[in-house]
Amino acid sequence: MTLRSSEDAVTSSGGHRTSVLARRRARTGFLLTVPALVLVVGVVVIPIGFALWISANRWPLFGEISFVGLDNYIRVFQDAQFWQSVGFTLLYTAVVTGPVLIFGYLLAAFVRGERPGTRLFRTLLFLPTVVGLSTLSFLWYVELRPNFGLVNVTLKALGITNGQTGWSLHWVTGLAAVSVLVIWFAVGTTMVLLLGGMQSIPAEIYEAARIDGVNGWQREMLITVPLVRRNLAMATVLSVIASFLAFQQFVILTNGGPGRETTTVVMSIFHESFYAQQLGSATAMGVVVMLIVAALTAIQLILMRERDA
Amino acid sequence: MSAEESLAPPTRRSAGQRRANVIYVAVGCVLSLLFVGPLVLAVIRSLQTEAQIVQPPNANSFDGLSLENYLGIFTRLPFLEMLGNSLIVSLGSAVVTAVIATLAGYGLGRFTFRGQSVVFGVILLALMVPFQVLFTPIYLQFNALGLTDSRIGLIIFYVTFNLPFAVFIMRNTFAAMPRELEEAAYVDGASTMGTLIHVLRPLALPGVATVVIFTFLACWTEFLGAFLFLTSQDKQTLPVGLLTLIQGGFGGISFGYVIAGSVISLIPCVILFIALQRYYVQGLAAGSVKN
Fold first, then answer.
1. Minimal Cα distance from B170: which residue of A?
2. Which of B5, B54, B73, B132 to mutate to test the interface with A (most CBs of A within 10 A)?
3. pTM beyond cutoff 0.85
4. Checking CA distances to A241, which of A140, A303, B66, B196 falls within 20 to 30 Å?
5. Residue range B83-108: mean pLDDT, rounded
6. A258-282 pLDDT, tens per residue?
7. Percent residues over pLDDT 70 in chain B
8. For chain A, where are the alpha helices, taking DSSP H only?
9. How far apart are CA A190 and CA A182, in angstroms?
10. Quick check: A252 contacting B, CB < 8 Å?
11. pLDDT at residue B289 in the model
């Protein structure tokens, strides 16, 4: 892929020569992007088309494949288990989104200035996010044990529970345990996303507000929030999508139980693919969920835009 | 926790200012403890004996700390294998992503060709499409190519889904370089790749560092893909191996082993992040102003 261009060097007088050169450079530019294109087309674009075909077939993991048209979609729409997992995942998303945004905002406001220790705090507050959700879920798993885990020991010491709570034994406690972990993990992302926006606000604006006697609450609501609106929109969309696609935290902490009560949408698709071994209906679920995610994103962006007006 | 006085550079070093700073630092310490405390606790816990771990914390919870859990995971579990798999997969993905994204960023940021925005749009598509719901067709395709239960297959999967962000970063990196550099190289008759390697490399390195650290951290503890693509035990990465452990796949559960394994998983993340923080934050900032 080395295109030597020494011979059509600099002093190209005349348009013909330059256009050859421009064409050659254009081809080089395109060739440079080919490896990336091949991967994205092979692992994203083709699978999207293939998904539509798989979902129109009865496609067991092993055995005969047969065309069934829209049957899988009809089955998915009648599948109570699947819609229960959609409902549960939406509930989980509703539970974590508010706290992730609010606490993330407060942390960003806390570390946006240049005061003693600010830089260090920025680093430390972001560490859980860097460590990653699966590792944190394993640690949380150990600390949630009845009697011995830190969570139960602390709650017992505070006189709130008897310290014997088995968090994964009921869907409400399971949801609570996962939500607390995820909020703790995800506020760092929101903090960093908002920090960039906050730091680009000119100090003079705040100075003027201070002289006008604006209090802290008004300052945030009237100045900061409108000015970091874009970052806020971005953080909200990312947070909602990530929650809706939750997988490992529930696999590790509740394994979808008791029964299938804390099974998320992605876990449902997984279950249908590799336990029920029905790839046709699993892929139909995937297509439906992709549409839900697209709709969620669109709704959010529209809501954010309306606030602009 | 108000953001009350967290702005405004200290103009006058008044007593009030000093007091505000003391309060600020105090609050910051409490918050930091809340976010880092559990990680530190995990490190301490990993040094407890199994007998201490299965007791409520008490006065002698931290007597006689030992490395027994670490010895245990390396001798009684195939932990070294898991660690090796995680390293191969993460480093492999980070390097391959960096190379492919650098080439594409060079092409998109320094050249003009027809359909350029289409090419960029197609690459960004991988960012819009959640692989968490598209894994069935991908699995079938990879299966047909013999790429399931294979670390190579997992690397291809990781590289693809980390590419959009990486290409985005590299395209910005190349677009920001001064034109004169290239023209000079051009006059000297340097080839396309020669210009990249000899002239533009120093300017591209910060972008490459961002891509490498992001991709490495994303793959190091990635769960779903590893769970999907690595079914044999000798290919499992850390998170999947730890899942096998808590679900009783290695015989009974040793909580000490779970914590020790988690601590080993988190240490590289913390070290890498602290060492390369500048690049990491730059990348996040660049990624957050996509529109």
1. A33
2. B132
3. yes
4. A140
5. 97
6. 999 999 999 999 999 999 999 999 9
7. 91
8. 15-40, 46-55, 71-78, 80-110, 118-131, 133-143, 150-157, 171-199, 203-211, 216-219, 225-227, 229-244, 248-253, 265-274, 279-308
9. 12
10. yes
11. 46
CB-based contact, B242 to chain A, within 8 Å: yes
Q: From the CA of B251, how many Å to the nearest CA of chain A?
A: 17
- The per-residue pLDDT for A294 is 87
Is the distance from CB of B263 to CB of B46 less than 8 angstroms? yes
Cβ-based neighbour number of residue A209 at 10 Å = 16
Query: Has residue A29 got a pLDDT over 60?
Result: yes
Cα end-to-end span (Å), chain B: 32
DSSP B98-146: HHHHHHHHHHHHH---TTHHHHHHHHHHHHHS-GGGSHHHHHHHHHHTT
Interface of A with B in 205-224 (CB under 8 A): 206-207, 210, 216, 220
Q: Is the pLDDT of residue B192 over 90?
A: no
Six-digit token string for B51? 């007998």
Residue A140 CB partners (closer than 8 Å, separation 6+): A177, A181, A253
Q: Using CA atoms, how far apart are residues B177 and B175, in angstroms rounded to an integer?
A: 6
What is the pLDDT averaged over residues A140-159? 90
Instruction: Report d(CA A263, CA A293) in Å as an integer.
Output: 17
User: Which bin fits B222, alpha (ψ -120 to 50), beta or left (φ > 0)?
Assistant: beta
Contact A36 B291 (CB under 8 A): no
Q: Are A117 and A226 in contact (CB under 8 A)?
A: no
pLDDT score of A308 more than 80: no
State whether B135 and A112 contact (CB < 8 Å): no
Indicate which of A1, A65, A106, A115 best probes the interface with B, i.e. most B CBs within 10 Å of its own CB: A115
| Cβ contacts of B7 within 8 Å, gap of 6 or more | A112, A113, A203, A206
B269 and A CB contact within 8 Å: yes
For residue B164, pLDDT over 50 is answered with: yes
A289/B133 Cβ within 8 A: yes
Q: Count Cβ atoms within 10 A of the Cβ of residue A292 and give its class: 0-12 exposed, 13-18 middle, 19 or more buried.
A: middle
The pLDDT mean for chain A works out to: 90
The 3-class secondary structure across A171-207, one letter per residue, is HHHHHHHHHHHHHHHHHHHHHHHHHHHHHCCCHHHHH
Which of A10, A138, A150 is opposite residue B262, by nearest beta carbon?
A138
Q: Is B62 on the interface with A (CB under 8 A)?
A: no
For A184, name the nearest residue in chain B, comparing CA atoms only.
B35
Looking at the DSSP assignment, which residues form a beta bridge with residue A278? A60
Question: CA-nearest residue of chain A to B39?
Answer: A128
pLDDT tens for A228-268 read: 998 898 899 999 999 999 999 999 999 998 999 999 999 99
- How many contacts (CB atoms, under 8 Å) link A and B? 314
